[in-house]
Design goal:
Elements: E1 2-8, H1 11-23, E2 28-32, E3 43-47, H2 52-61, E4 67-76, E5 79-84
Length: 85
C-alpha cells in the first residue's frame, strides 16, 4: 500500500489545498504528519498516486508559501518508508 502526502508548514494552506483537491474530484483526507518529516504544521493531505499530476498542477496555480513537499509513503511489512518526490 502506498499514498502521497502534501505537506505544509501552515494549517490554513493545508486545508486550502485539501479543499482544492476535493473540488477537483480527488479522493483525499487529512492525517497527522509523520514525525519523520520534521517541523510542519502537524497535519498533511493524503491522496492516491493517481492524483499527483492534478496536485502538482494545483500547486502551480496558487502562491503556496508554506509548501514543504510531496512525499510518497509506502507501507511494507508494517513499516512506513517515506521518500520525497
Amino acid at each position: 500500500m502506498s499514498y502521497i502526502l502534501g505537506v505544509f508548514t501552515s494549517r490554513n494552506e493545508t486545508l486550502y489545498f485539501f479543499n482544492m483537491l476535493k473540488k477537483n474530484g480527488c479522493f483525499c483526507d487529512i492525517i497527522s504528519t509523520p514525525n519523520d518529516l520534521g517541523k510542519t504544521c502537524g497535519i498533511s493531505v493524503r491522496f492516491r498516486e493517481n492524483c499527483l499530476t492534478l496536485a502538482r498542477t494545483l500547486m502551480q496555480s496558487q502562491p503556496f508559501r508554506t509548501f514543504f513537499g510531496f512525499f510518497k509513503v509506502s507501507v511494507i511489512h508494517g513499516k512506513q518508508l517515506i521518500s520525497r518526490i
